[in-house]
């Protein structure tokens, strides 16, 4: 609907700089013509399906950019595949999961321990 507008870095509860890098590569590929966007109808179907899934899980629409719901690496792997890159390495996923657990277990000191 706005073909010359791109947003990088809106997601949260993810590995931020990896997401920024993947999104930047994807947007550059689309703008250069190397990658093609799905049709507007296909994108709208994906949006509708995404919001239906969120509603079924009891998630508010305001949490649209929260990538920590469900499979936290699904989005990153999808963008990487769109760019012709491999899925995120297992060690990155493991570090992210361990950091989230450390944050949940020690919210006041997780950076120090």
From TrEMBL:
PANTHER family: DIMETHYLANILINE MONOOXYGENASE. Keywords: FAD, Flavoprotein, Oxidoreductase. It comes from Aegilops tauschii subsp. strangulata. Gene3D superfamilies: FAD/NAD(P)-binding domain. This is Flavin-containing monooxygenase. SUPFAM superfamilies: FAD/NAD(P)-binding domain. InterPro entries: FAD/NAD-bd_sf, FMO-like. GO terms for molecular function: oxidoreductase activity.
